[in-house]
User: Fold these one by one.
Assistant:
Number 1:
Amino acid sequence: MVEAPGSPLAADALAGRVAIVTGGGTGIGRATARAFVQAGSHVVICGRRPEPLAAVEAELGADACLARPCDVREPEQVGSLLDEVAARHDRVDALVHCAGGQFAAPLAETSMKGLRAVHRLNVDAVWDLTQRVAERWMIPQRQGFVCVVGFSPRRGIPLMVHSSMARSALETFVSGIALEWSAYGIRAVCIAPGLIETEGMLGYGGQDVVDRFAETVPMKRPGRPEEVASLIAFLATPAAGYLTGTTIAVDGGADAWGLGTAPPDLEPGTA
C-alpha cells in the first residue's frame, strides 16, 4: 500500500533527495534548482557557461548545490559529470532537463545542419542523459522522476518549426517512459512553458518583443521562471506520485488559444 504523501508545501517536501538540473545556471533551470533546495533537496546543476553556474552555487550554498560545467551534447563530459555526482551522492531521485537551445529562422531557410544542431541538444542529449541516470540510479533504486521542458503552443511556432518539432518528441519520450519504466517506479512529465520572461527570451529582441508577444496570451503577461519551477518541484514530491506520462502547459492559456495572431498573407501566385 502506498503511503499517503505529506504536504507538497512543506519546507522538507524533498528532504533527503537529490536532483540533477541541466541548464541550471539561468532562467527556468536556475529557478528550478532554487525551488528544489528550498524544499530540502540537494541539487547538481550543469551548463556550458561556468560563470552563471558558480553564481547559483554561491547563492544556494555549496552544501546544497554542486555546480559543474558540462555540455550535455558531449558523452565524455556527461560521463565525467555523473562520476562526480556518484562521488558526492549515493542516489539521484529527479532529473530535470532545462538545457536547450534554438534560433529563429523560417522553415524554408533552416538547413539540415541547423535542424540537427537543435535536435542534438534538445532530443539526443535528453535521451542519452536520461538513459544513463536511469540505468545508474533510478532503475536499481526503483524510484525516480524525469522532467523535460517542451514548448507551448504545442502545435508549432512560426520561425521555430525546427525546435517545436524537437520539443514534441519530448512529449512522446515521457509517455514512453511511463509505459516502460513505471515498472521501476519511475515517473516522467513534460512541462510545456509558453512565454516566460527569461534571459534567453529577452535575447530575441528585448522587453518590447516580450511585451508584444504577451498581447497574444490570454492572461496578457509573460510567465515568470519561478512559476514553472514551483510546478516542477511539486511534481517531484510524493504528492504527485500518481502523475506520469503527460504534458502540462504553463503558458497563461496560450495553448488553449492557439497562436493568437493572424495567419500570414498569401504569397503572390498562390491559389
Note: The chain has nine helices and seven strands.
Number 2:
Amino acid sequence: MKTHEHFIDKCIRLARKGALDVSPNPMVGCVIVNDGEIIGEGYHKEYGKNHAEVNAINSVKDKSILKNSILYVNLEPCCHHGKTPPCTDLIIKYNIPKVVIGCVDTFSKVSGQGIKKLKDNSVDVIYGVLEKDCIELNKRFFCYHIKKRPYIILKWAKSKDNFIAPINQEKPFWMTCEKSKKLVHSWRAEEDAILVGRKTVVADNPSLTVRMSEGKNPLRIVIDKELKLNEKSNVFDDQAETIVFNNIKSTIVDKTTYLKADFNNLNQDILNQLYNRDILSLIIEGGAITINSFIEKNLYDEIRVFTTDKILKKGVNSPELPDINLIETSIINNDKLEVYKR
C-alpha cells in the first residue's frame, strides 16, 4: 500500500519543475489520489498563473470522483485572494474530503489559516508529512518570509594554496574548469539576484548571466560607492537588469537602476531594499572583500566553495569559512566542490 510519504514525495518532484519560473511564489506540486491511484496531478508552472492544486483538479476528467479522493500537496493551500483565487475554495467546492500537506506556509496571509478553513468546512487535514524535505524545497521562500531578507548563498573558487585571485590582476582569470563554470551558470538561473563588488567588475568584466545554461538571467547587483565603473562594462549591457548600489544618486537609465545606499550599514540596507523588491534569493560571487563583509555580519545561509588544482604562490587570500556544516562534497574534473549549510 502506498503511503502518504510516497505521494508527498511525488508532489515535491512535481514542484521542482517550476523552479526557474515561479519566484517570488513557492514551488508547489499536487497529486489527487482515488483508491490508491493517482487520478490527477499538477504543479505551479509560472508566477501569476494557476497554483498546483488548480492544475491538479483541472486534470481530473470526471470531477464527480473528487468527493471520494485525497488531495496531496507539499505546501499548505492558500486561502486568500492574490493573483489567483484561494485554492482552499476550490477544494471545498469539489467536496474533496481529505487533504494531506507537507508543511505549513509561513506567509502571513496563509500560515495555518488555509488548514483552519479546510477543517472548518469538514475537510480531514493531515500535515507535517516529509516536512523537512518540503521546507528544504522552498528554503528561499521560507527564509524570505521568516527572516525578512533573501536567502543568501556565498560562492567562491580558490587555488590549491588558498588564494581567490592573483594580485594586481590585469585580465580575467578563471580559477575553475569549464564544467564547473557551467554548473555555476545553472546555479545563477535558480536565484533571483547575483551580487558582486566593484573590484570584481574591474578585474573580470563579468556578464553575470546564464549564457552557459538554460533559464532566465538573475537580477545583477553591483556595489559601486563612487560610481567609478566604466559604463561599457558587461554588467551594463542589455542582457539583464542591473542595480548599482552607490552613495551618489537614485535614478534609472535603460535597464540599470542606481540606488543610494547606507554605506554605514551597507549589507543590511541592500538586503532590505531587495526584500522590498520581492527578491527571494541572492548568490554572492565576489570578491573577497564583499564575501568577507557578509560573513562578518553573519548574513549567509549557504556557502559553496570550489578548490582547484591551480597554485598561485601569492594572491588575494580566500575568505575564511565560518563555523558551518559541510553537507556535500563532489569532484568536478580537477575541482573539488564543497557545499556548507547553516
Note: The chain has a mean pLDDT of 95.
Number 3:
Amino acid sequence: MSYNIVSFCGGGIRGLMSAEILNQLWAAYPNILTKTDLFAGTSTGSGIISLLLSEKYATPPGVISYFQNQEVSFFSNPKYKGSQLPSPEPWYAVSGVYAGQVAIHGPTKTLNGFTDQSLLFTSFNVQNSGDLGWTPLLYNNLSKSTNGDTAIADAVTSSSAMPGMLGSWKGNVDGAFVNHDPTIAAIALAMNEGIAIEDIVVICIGTGFMPTYLVSDTSSWGAAQWQNGLPGNPDHISSLLVGGTVSPILSISLNGTSSSLMPTLIGMMLPGRYVNINPVLNTFIAENDTNPADLKTLITAGQADSPQIEQAKQLLQQYWV
C-alpha cells in the first residue's frame, strides 16, 4: 500500500496558482483530499492546508475564493507606509495572520486534534532553543511528534512569518528557512514513522518557477556584491524579501534550493512516484502582488494543462484509491 504525500510550497499570493492547480486535480480525482496520508506545507502552502482543514473553505474552490478575497484584501493594505528601503518595520502585522487563523480554527485546536490525516507545517525558530540555538521546526501530528499539541493557528502563523513582510511569531519565522519546498522534510518524517521509501508517492504543488541567474562576471565578487548586488542591478534580480533590497546570496539560498535542487534530488529518491507541478511564470510576481493582471496570470497558469498535470493525474489514478 502506498503512502501518499501532497506538499505545497511557499510564495505568498502566488498560492492562488497552487489552489488552481489543486482544483484541476481535485475535479478529476476528488480522492486527492481524502486519500492523502500527509499534507505538508511551507508558508502560504501551510495556509492552503489550513483552509482545506476548515469547515468553510474545505474544497479547492473555497481556497481560491479565500485568496481572491481575504488574501488580496490583506496584501492590499500594508501596515508600513514609508518609503525607506529596506523597510525599518514589517510591511504587515503578523497578528493579522494569526487573527485570520483563529477565525478559521479558533485559538486552541491543536494539530493532534486532526485525526483523519497527518500534517506538517515548517517553520524556523530564531530564538535560543536550548543547546542548538536557532533550529528548524517541523510542526506535525505524526505518532512520533513532539509538538503535536501546538495550536494550528500558531503553527500556520509561524510557518508564514516571512521576515521583512511580517514580524516573527513566538520567536519563529517563515518555513522557507527550512526550505520553500517542504517535500523532503515530509519524506523524512514518513520514513521516521517506519514507512519504506519504496511506498512513498508525492505530488508537490509549487507557486511558480521564475528563472533567475546572474549575467555579471562573479569571479571577483566580494561579500558586498553577493549581499547587495551591483549598482543599477544589471542582473535584473528581483527583491526577495518584501520591503527589502536585491540580495543575490539570499535569492540563491532561499530560491535556488527549492526551484531546482529539491525536485532533482526527490526525483532521484522516488523514481516514477513523484511529480513537481510548478508552472513557469514569465514575469516576476512578488509575494504581496495584488495587481489584477498579475492575479489573472496566476489563475491562467494554474488552470493550464501541462505534462506535469497529466503525470499527477496518473499518480492519483494509480495510488489515490
Note: The chain has a mean pLDDT of 95.
